[in-house]
Amino acid sequence: MADLYDIGVSAIINLLSALAFLIAFAILRLQPVNDRVYFPKWYLKGLRASPIRPKGSLTKFVNLDFRTYLRFLNWMPEALKMPEPELIEHAGVDSVVYIRIYLLGLKIFIPIMALAFAVLVPVNWTGKMLDNAQYVSFNSIDKLSISNIPQGSNRFWAHIFVAYASTLWTCYMLYKEYEIVTAMRLEFIAVADRRPDQFSVLVRNVPPDPDESVNGHVEHFFRVNHPDHYLLHQVVYNANKLADLVEKKKSMKNWLIYYQNMYERRPLRKPTIKAGFWGLWGARVDAIDYYTKEIEKLTEQEAAEREKVISDPEAILPAAFVSFRSRWGAAVCAQTQQTSNPTLWLTEWAPEPSDVYWNNLAIPYVEHNIRKLFMSVALFFLIFFFMVPITFVQSIANIDGLEKAFPFMKNLIEQGPVRSFVKGYLPGIILKIFLLCIPMVVMLMSKIEGFTSFSYLERRSAAKYYLFILVNVFLGNIIAGTAFQQLSHFLHKSATDIPRIIGESIPMKATFFITYIMIDGWAGVAAEVLRIVPLLLFHIKNAVLVKTEQDREEAMDPGFLDFAAYEPRIQLYFLLGLVYCVVTPILLPFIIVFFAFAYLVFRHQIINVYDRKYESGAAFWPDVHRRILVALVISHFSLLGLLSAKLSIKSIKATIPLLLALPILTIWFHTICKGRFESAFKKFPLQDAMMKDTLERATDPTLDLRSYLRDAYLHPIFKGGEVYAPPPSDEEEGFPLVATKRSQRSSRVTSLAGSDVGVQLV
Amino acid sequence: MADLYDIGVSAIINLLSALAFLIAFAILRLQPVNDRVYFPKWYLKGLRASPIRPKGSLTKFVNLDFRTYLRFLNWMPEALKMPEPELIEHAGVDSVVYIRIYLLGLKIFIPIMALAFAVLVPVNWTGKMLDNAQYVSFNSIDKLSISNIPQGSNRFWAHIFVAYASTLWTCYMLYKEYEIVTAMRLEFIAVADRRPDQFSVLVRNVPPDPDESVNGHVEHFFRVNHPDHYLLHQVVYNANKLADLVEKKKSMKNWLIYYQNMYERRPLRKPTIKAGFWGLWGARVDAIDYYTKEIEKLTEQEAAEREKVISDPEAILPAAFVSFRSRWGAAVCAQTQQTSNPTLWLTEWAPEPSDVYWNNLAIPYVEHNIRKLFMSVALFFLIFFFMVPITFVQSIANIDGLEKAFPFMKNLIEQGPVRSFVKGYLPGIILKIFLLCIPMVVMLMSKIEGFTSFSYLERRSAAKYYLFILVNVFLGNIIAGTAFQQLSHFLHKSATDIPRIIGESIPMKATFFITYIMIDGWAGVAAEVLRIVPLLLFHIKNAVLVKTEQDREEAMDPGFLDFAAYEPRIQLYFLLGLVYCVVTPILLPFIIVFFAFAYLVFRHQIINVYDRKYESGAAFWPDVHRRILVALVISHFSLLGLLSAKLSIKSIKATIPLLLALPILTIWFHTICKGRFESAFKKFPLQDAMMKDTLERATDPTLDLRSYLRDAYLHPIFKGGEVYAPPPSDEEEGFPLVATKRSQRSSRVTSLAGSDVGVQLV
């Protein structure tokens, strides 16, 4: 175990590396040539153009104004300046609420730290348990922790007091925060600017009808069942193949530009490629000719496919976006059940148009459930057998394995530095690569599950990733062995033993987690601000693809706030803070530094860098809130386990009810918060909708909602120039009598089961 | 352990006692004097009047037609005759669905029994484990059970096969049944006759408004937010005190009649009572005078209180029943959220008027949650410390204790028969009395929790009682010791040990549960049909209170289907059947006899006896369904535990995944069913509402909905003759501009926070 001194050294190393990142960032960001890497958001907003500097060619790429370097940290106060309403305007509710998570961490942990340092550090320090005992391994950290209190001491009451105080404070802050975020969300949904999703509802699982097309069926259904509110609808086309073609064409175009650029620079050598599979074999042909022809071919295919999608009724999926005359009408339709079979005509709030994940709109109800079942089994295996493939790859990727697989590289591998790299770093790097893939794997799993909006996919992925981190990072480091070994270990332990085992090993792991926080937290966040990968990619693209200003625009990769990958990691810090605040309070300052630093960096990033992929109105907050409460409950049980091993039999009887009350009250607090706030994230109050509708009618009486909404939910593939005619929709206002094919069949008029009986009776 | 012979004897005894009950019933029900006890439902329906027989005074009381006695079991086919639609008409959806639970038991267990007898009985019987071993206690039952299979045998595959087959069959039947019940409910809600609750919504937690009364506030809020649909509303008065007065007056009247009757029969002795506390002390006064005066006093008080309730704005609770112009409007309002604060203006389907539990309508949101928290803690103590008060009472109620408490009874107690009664039966009777109180206690707890309809109170009570039975009857008989001892026992066992412990003791308890089924099931149901307590009460009332035909009407106590007390007990039989169908299939016939007999008896009772207290449209079905699935999962884990102790190490590895898949698939099946059907019990499809609305407009265009709904949700205390003027409601149709006090205050007109901003802007 590391001593305070070791921790100090580690802290200095990590601080220095973080500082190095920051200095590198400070220098790089001032270079005009990197401007599009570090300030892409402003370019996207059209508020910044490629820098125009005095003619000198060097200053176009390098910043020679040395005074600016002196103020290399001035981005920090800059990042804090923008007030929140403006930030919402600039970066969206999602991003603003996301950085509030870091702020919440500060709000929770600074007072807790103050209390823990005032109460627990003196109590622990003077505990004298470790002074007297003949313990082999103890260190100054342990002297500040609960380990320094002797068995059965009365001092544990101080810890119970701090546990209560910190739980109460955390719940109070969570409540306040939930209140604020809910208000922001309601403001966003109803009172903010007019957006198509305020008026629209996504309808899925439209039942097949032998007499009608999906188009007609949807229209008739909503005209009958929402007669005063239905305005228009947009069917969903199965354009996945078309999207693939467009994607392929875009990549071909990139290659064409690349070879054209090459040819321009070296006009003597005409570039050629092999025409076969992946350019690896086949006849050698002229590259520019080849790609020009391929693009022509694809353009034709694309046109044919486009034609087919629009004209073929088979290409229409049993889903639609239905828009209403008022927010009230949409709110009603989204919150109610439409038919007696709740697996048909499923209505939900339409996601923002850019938030729609088009590929999943047509999955039937039962298939969706089967997919969910399979993915939860897969998640179980991912979490508990995560180490199996890694161990397998590691066993191959050793010296002998590599030599066997690549005999021709034997000499290279046998060389000293390569050998020691393979031996020393390769297993770690393989682990890291697998770990980096987890967010992508869980995102893929969520996509397979079949959810219909990017925001929801991200939330589902975050939930999976959180479980993964909880088991593999938190528990995996507290208890030795792989996750599956832990699981079978715990299955054979009693319900009272499990918290005791975890609780007892928690103080011993404090130094490990402090180091973890510094490496993953401090240095990781500093690396985030530097954006090494986008920086390199931008310059490579700039070198080979960019000719015009528009190309440069496209080469720019602002990235986005990857909620699914970042949020579960923040949750780990909440968990560590809450678990250790009573046990080893010395860990708290490290967490607070992380939260403060990350808050700064991400505030800077959302102002200057990240693009907004979609806007969900902070729909993720209930998840964040719930996970912090889960962390709180875990901290209670670990404290219970720790104290049950440390207290005398008599005090245990007195404290167990006290300690058991904590998780019960926390879970109760969760139900209160759920009842009080969660519906704001699921439903949409009619009062707000009505208010906004009324206001809008008063301020903008001539608004043509129909033309505003007509193309809002068109598949993005149909947007951007190509003419597309939406299916003719009945323009008649009021409640027209819609002639259905079915109503012409007199034999079925009397059937009550049909969806349009209302029409026939009117 | 009992042998087959013992079981046979016990079966004969219980069959005989059941037969005795049935014969007693057959004789008693034919006596005209008991007609109102055994056929009260027909009296309530007005289809039967007091029997008019030939003048002879004896035949008025006793049936002398001996031919009718010969057909003493003919009520059984009679009970099966009424077809289901007519039965729904006659007894309501709740009752019909309730008896379908018994039918479901038959549908599930008859095929399972056939399979288990065909497969498992031969496999077990030839297992020969118990023939060879030197077991001290084994019997023929055990030879038919899984205990007869030797350790590590391959025959266990047969049991796994039956477990799969029975799980699949149970799930299939549950799915079919859920489908049928859902259809019945939807039919009831939308398509059935017009009822006030189809148009009405219960609004709770109306926020206080400094400028307006609750009455005005509700009207304005709904006029603004449901402008096209709001029709009228009915505020809720705090009439609890008034109801108490009315109740007290009724009881006084009963006493008055009693003494008047006494006086008529024995005119020589004027009846007197003591005027003090409970008639135990005080001056002796003339009883008739006393009660006449008391009644006069109460009548005055009642009138004053009634006046006060109607005129005092403080007596209006922050809750209201809001009625809409159409079912569609009510369906929308019930399913949507009204304001941004989801703890205010809570809307839900109005219960049927007779289903409303008026006392709980005004509990604020947070208080409701605190009550729920306290009641769940109380439930925990009720379940796990249930034995503590019983043991205490039993310790007092022994010979010595009684002699100490009642020294003057010493001689009596010391007598032989009394002594042996106190020693032998008193502890058992005390336990039984406490057990009989449990349904009342959990109902009281549910009432304290603060739910607003009788049907929901019953469902909550049933859930509590189910937990109680599960822990104290099922687990309590499998594992020795009190519930709390079991709990602490299990807390110290590992997750793999708990199913093993339960699984291993399950086969040993088969004979106990067979006896339990015969006593509690067979004899208990037979006692139900006899209605001993109502029979006695009716004749006592008849003797002392009844003078007129109307008094006789009131003395009749038809009782009602006590869902909260009966359903959890049925669930115990499902649990036993599912757990034992693989382990000891010989138990199944006993359960099937129970289900068949109970089906017959309760079908007879709902046709002839029980009154309908309310009608919830089978809202309890999701609970029934879920509990059967819980039983299924328990059966899987007990089988897993049993087999893990019985299988060889090698086969365990092969079977554990197979056995673990069973509960996982069952839980998945639960989520499927929940998604597919449950919303029919929570929401109300708009299509059905619209269809019925349209039909009604077409068939009954002149319907005056306003007068139909005006008094539907009046507190029952205001009904029945006393003139009551509902608060004047704006009769203007359309969307009137409602003048609120607030709109006269110019300073607040611009505020967006108010509920009636819509009005001001229109």
Automatic annotation (TrEMBL), chains A, B:
<feature type="domain" description="CSC1/OSCA1-like 7TM region">
    <location>
        <begin position="371"/>
        <end position="643"/>
    </location>
</feature>
<keyword id="KW-0472">Membrane</keyword>
<keyword id="KW-0106">Calcium</keyword>
<keyword id="KW-0813">Transport</keyword>
<feature type="transmembrane region" description="Helical">
    <location>
        <begin position="425"/>
        <end position="444"/>
    </location>
</feature>
<feature type="transmembrane region" description="Helical">
    <location>
        <begin position="655"/>
        <end position="673"/>
    </location>
</feature>
<feature type="transmembrane region" description="Helical">
    <location>
        <begin position="156"/>
        <end position="175"/>
    </location>
</feature>
<dbReference type="InterPro" id="IPR003864">
    <property type="entry name" value="CSC1/OSCA1-like_7TM"/>
</dbReference>
<dbReference type="InterPro" id="IPR032880">
    <property type="entry name" value="CSC1/OSCA1-like_N"/>
</dbReference>
<dbReference type="Pfam" id="PF02714">
    <property type="entry name" value="RSN1_7TM"/>
</dbReference>
<feature type="domain" description="CSC1/OSCA1-like N-terminal transmembrane">
    <location>
        <begin position="7"/>
        <end position="177"/>
    </location>
</feature>
<keyword id="KW-1133">Transmembrane helix</keyword>
<feature type="domain" description="CSC1/OSCA1-like cytosolic">
    <location>
        <begin position="198"/>
        <end position="360"/>
    </location>
</feature>
<feature type="transmembrane region" description="Helical">
    <location>
        <begin position="12"/>
        <end position="30"/>
    </location>
</feature>
<keyword id="KW-0812">Transmembrane</keyword>
<dbReference type="Pfam" id="PF14703">
    <property type="entry name" value="PHM7_cyt"/>
</dbReference>
<comment type="similarity">
    <text>Belongs to the CSC1 (TC 1.A.17) family.</text>
</comment>
<keyword id="KW-0407">Ion channel</keyword>
<keyword id="KW-0406">Ion transport</keyword>
<feature type="transmembrane region" description="Helical">
    <location>
        <begin position="101"/>
        <end position="121"/>
    </location>
</feature>
<feature type="transmembrane region" description="Helical">
    <location>
        <begin position="373"/>
        <end position="397"/>
    </location>
</feature>
<protein>
    <recommendedName>
        <fullName>CSC1-like protein At4g02900</fullName>
    </recommendedName>
</protein>
<feature type="transmembrane region" description="Helical">
    <location>
        <begin position="465"/>
        <end position="484"/>
    </location>
</feature>
<feature type="transmembrane region" description="Helical">
    <location>
        <begin position="572"/>
        <end position="602"/>
    </location>
</feature>
<dbReference type="GO" id="GO:0005886">
    <property type="term" value="C:plasma membrane"/>
</dbReference>
<dbReference type="Pfam" id="PF13967">
    <property type="entry name" value="RSN1_TM"/>
</dbReference>
<dbReference type="InterPro" id="IPR045122">
    <property type="entry name" value="Csc1-like"/>
</dbReference>
<feature type="transmembrane region" description="Helical">
    <location>
        <begin position="628"/>
        <end position="649"/>
    </location>
</feature>
<dbReference type="GO" id="GO:0005227">
    <property type="term" value="F:calcium-activated cation channel activity"/>
</dbReference>
<dbReference type="InterPro" id="IPR027815">
    <property type="entry name" value="CSC1/OSCA1-like_cyt"/>
</dbReference>
